Amino acid sequence: MNKLPIEVGSVVISKAGRDRGRIFLVIEEVDADFVRIANGELRKLDRLKKKRRKHLKPTGAVVQALRDRISEGKTVEDHELRAWLREEEEKLVQV
Predict the structure, then answer these.
(1) Going by DSSP bridges, is the β-strand pair 49-52/23-29 parallel, antiparallel, or unpaired?
(2) Under a CB-based contact definition with an 8 Å cutoff, are residues 58 and 76 in contact?
(3) CATH code at position 69
(4) Considering the domain boundaries, does residue 46 fall inside one?
């Protein structure tokens, strides 16, 4: 069981499926079991991936800028997702 929450803005790593090992951002919570994720490359914002929470590994990182933009109803672009994920990947590699 995951101790870290998986919520909007969370940086997660896929544990199952053809996208296994890839890093994503949680864009939307569907229900208690599912979220929608994107990374701006393989999965863009116009085609979000619906994924079970149990198939995602939370990294503990949260992109606050993404959470704020979504809660305010502002648009987010794919290039911004890629930039945020690059920053988070660099942090993960350093640890």
Answers:
(1) unpaired
(2) no
(3) 2.30.30
(4) yes
pLDDT in tens, 36-55: 999 999 999 999 999 999 99
Domain that holds residue 46: 10-94
Q: What is the b/e burial string over 54-71, where b = at least 16 CB atoms within 10 angstroms of the residue's CB?
A: eebebbebbbeebbebbe
Series of mean pLDDT values for 10-residue runs along the chain (95 residues): 83 95 96 96 95 95 93 94 93 78
Q: Within a domain: residue 5? A: no
Gyration radius of the chain's alpha carbons: 12
pLDDT of residue 18: 95
35: amino acid identity, one letter: V
Residue 87 located in a structural domain: yes
Is residue 47 a part of any domain in this protein?
yes
